[in-house]
Amino acid sequence: MTARIGVVTFPGSLDDRDTQRAIKLAGAEPVALWHKDKDLKQVDAVVLPGGFSYGDYLRAGAISRFSPVMETVIEQAKSGMPVLGICNGFQVLTEAHLLPGAMLGNNHLHFICRDQKLRVENAGTAWTADYTAGQEIYIPLKNMDGRYVADEHTLDMLEAEGRVAFRYVDVNPNGSLRDIAGITNEAGNVVGLMPHPEHAVEPLVGSGRTDGLPFFTSILKKLVNA
Fold it and tell me: Is 109 exposed, middle or buried (0-12, 13-18, 19+ CB in 10 A)?
């Protein structure tokens, strides 16, 4: 039985099709989900893709958090369904309080687009199991509001519990506290990160690397072996 992974499209989503293709390349079935529908169509996992949902008005992800689909996503995530938030999707996850902290504007106040070196800090989540802890990878990064912030207590908690999933290496591109590029919830089924793994799954397009493909093979193995 083929695993089914839903990809939510919000008004302003840019990378939903790219994410669907990455899922297909990994061997799973991508399922398009519309933000106004609460029905998740019996998917096994959900990805909130990158983009500028609702034009990033108010705050990035602040309006999408109240889309009807998120009511079901929040409920299912709390019950253990794997959920991945990429860039704008990460912002939505923090606004929905599925992940702690918040995303603010880049400290240099400019949009950034580059191949970014990351270090895998946690290879024990549903979305990172095909990496190894300490592995360094290159994933495309493109954002305007990518600066991860949280209070010191939350940051210390994330560090102590091993919930920093990815960290920026060599260059901190947006001022994220403690060089944090991605985090996970306590259970490890919800992961958010700013860089775009769906743009690094084929050697001939995007970054020319395949360092992002393990996100999608990791979840496939998790679902098949569940």
Answer: exposed
Residue with tokens 């919800």: 190
| pLDDT digits 0-9 by tens, 176-214 | 999 999 999 999 999 999 999 999 999 987 778 999 999
Annotated catalytic sites, by residue?
Answer: 87, 196, 198
Query: Residue 53 — very low, low, confident or very high, per pLDDT cuts 50/70/90?
Result: confident
Tell which residue, 63, 52, 10, 64, has the closest CA to residue 32. 10
Residue appearing with tokens 């996992």: 45
Quickly state the pLDDT bin for 163 (edges 50, 70, 90): very high
| Nearest of 75, 72, 74, 112 to residue 94 by alpha carbon | 74
Report DSSP state, residue 43.
-
Closest CA to 141 of 102, 167, 177: 167
Helix (H, G, I), strand (E, B) or coil at 141: strand
Q: What are phi and psi of 120, to 5 degrees?
A: -75, 120
Other C-beta atoms closer than 10 Å to the C-beta of 113 total 11
Q: Are 191 and 123 in contact (CB under 8 A)?
A: no
CA distance 25 to 72: 27
**Do 51 and 14 touch, CB atoms closer than 8 A?**
yes
Give the chain's count of helices (H) and strands (E): 5, 11
19 forms beta bridges with none
Does residue 44 register a pLDDT over 80?
yes
Task: Give the per-residue pLDDT at 202.
Answer: 94
